[in-house]
Amino acid sequence: MFCKNCGNEVNLGSAVCPSCGTQMIVDEAPFIAKIGSCCFPIVGLVLYIVWKQDKPASAKSVGSIPKIV
Is residue 29 a contact partner of residue 47, using CB atoms and an 8 Å limit? Predict the structure, then answer.
C-alpha cells in the first residue's frame, strides 16, 4: 500500500509511514458485508467493484470469511 501524504510504499501492517510519519488508516469491509458476500457471491462482486478505487483494503477483504470473536 502507499502513503496518501508522500506516496511512498508502506508495509501493509504499518501504523505510520516510515518516510513522513503520517498515520496509516487501515480500512476493512464491515462484518455484514463479509457475511453477505459469503452467502451471496454477487454481493461481494458488486462491493468489490464499488470499493476498489476508494477503499482498496475493504475491497480485498470483502470476499474473506469473517472472523467471529
Answer: yes
In single-letter form, the type of residue at position 18 comes to P
CA–CA separation, 11 and 62 (whole Å): 20
Report pLDDT digits (tens) over 7-16.
Answer: 888 887 778 8
What gap in Å lies between CA 30 and CA 40, rounded to an integer?
Answer: 15
CA distance 14 to 3: 10
Q: Which residues pair with 2 in a beta bridge?
A: 9
pLDDT at 4 over 70: yes
Cell of 10: 508502506
